[in-house]
Write a structure and sequence with these properties.
flat, homodimer, about 220 residues, DNA-binding, mainly alpha
Chain lengths: ~220, ~220
DNA sequence: CACTAGATGTCTACGCTGTAGACACCAGTA
DNA sequence: TACTGGTGTCTACAGCGTAGACATCTAGTG
């Protein structure tokens, strides 16, 4: 009867399944098999599958390392580091990304990170609403990037991706050029830093103008 | 026997179902019911459900209005307008957003938009890789925003969202403040324009420095 | 020590899903 | 008129999440 089933065992087994075989592979039956236990056993610890998914999201979120950010560095670097930590955690479990995007980006587990980011930016003189926008953008972008990475890995049952060879150069000259330069599928991660740099630029300008009007 | 079933009828019925009742409501059986036809009839026109979903994505993409962009305006405005068109199309069908995020952001239907955006930015002196990054960011952010909007509408089967009343102010002072200011759930759409403005700023600076080194 | 109450794992079963395969019919061509 | 290919229908299968009954093991109480 294997009396020792716990929420943590279920969560980590679930995460293992998702990491190895993708999100669609995570069924309650598969989860049971993975732990050598009846599928229904999970329901003694988790009232439904949704809760299990929340738990998986929380597990990934808990891997984000906020302590590694050096508070002595300029706020711009801190923000960049935080964004990178976030993306890194997600990219470690790309198949979880759809869950993160779907189940709100601010589930309990990520509150810690959000608070940290707010702190960095407001101390730098940013307005709360701008800081929130920046955070949302970082979260959404990271989730999107990870999701794209996940989708690229899984064949995704009969969908026609990868038209690399077959896009008509007449109609799409620039796209063709970009594809040939490899700018399409590569460097999706650069998108985040590009966007973050952009938002930092805006925050800098705004903070400066506020400081100027204060004097 | 209703001899007149077409791919378009199936696609538009599917989109109607998704818009009204969410993505999880779209089953082949439901699709059949919607059209007063046997569930299996759809398989005469679409080899599997994945193709149907691709078709739905394409339908939404086709609603993006690239012609409405005024070429006489400065490129910054054009880019902003394009981003807004993209988001608007997605927000018209928020429940489709997960599909768009999952099935690559550059399915056939959106190539047109991507090419247009590339054109705007390269004519303004941007490098192709930077332009691609900007486009990816716009696409991912729009999809993320729409997805968040979709998730907020659907109760999402037993997940604990909306901790508005119950987040401990001691631990999360800034978050609490932001929540009280309503900066959390409102204005997700502002996130896109904030990020776009940021990336425009970066593109401007880069273009300027390139022009300077040319002389 | 005996007994009980609760927690936990197991089993069966229901209605849902996508879709394979056989069948029935109808339109157009030879 | 006979046939052929396209289309809609029907049945069936394996898989899903999970409700509800049952069995068993553990801890606490007298």
């Amino acid at each position: 009867m294997a009396r020792g089933l716990t929420r943590e065992m279920l969560t980590s087994a679930a995460l293992r399944i998702v990491d190895n075989d993708g999100l669609q592979a995570l069924s309650m039956r598969r989860l049971g098999t993975e732990l050598g236990v009846d599928p229904m056993a999970a329901y003694r610890h988790l009232s439904n599958k949704g809760i299990l998914l929340d738990e998986v999201v929380a597990a990934v979120m808990s891997e984000i390392d906020t302590e590694a950010i050096d508070a002595s560095r300029p706020w711009q670097d801190q923000l960049r580091a935080l964004a990178l930590s976030y993306l890194t955690a997600l990219m470690a479990h790309p198949h979880v990304a759809p869950l993160i995007a779907e189940r709100s980006l601010r589930t309990a587990g990520s509150l810690r990170v959000v608070e940290k980011a707010l702190q960095i930016m407001t101390e730098a003189g940013a307005q709360l609403s701008d800081a929130m926008a920046t955070i949302d953008a970082i979260g959404l972008l990271s989730a999107g990037i990870a999701q794209a990475a996940s989708a690229a890995q899984v064949p995704a049952n009969g969908t026609a991706r990868d038209f690399s060879g077959l896009l008509p150069p007449r109609e799409f000259p620039l796209l063709t050029q970009a594809a040939e330069a490899g700018a399409l599928s590569d460097g999706l991660a650069d998108v985040l830093s590009f966007a973050v740099d952009g938002m930092i630029a805006v925050l800098e300008v705004k903070a400066q103008s506020i400081r100027a009007s204060d004097e």
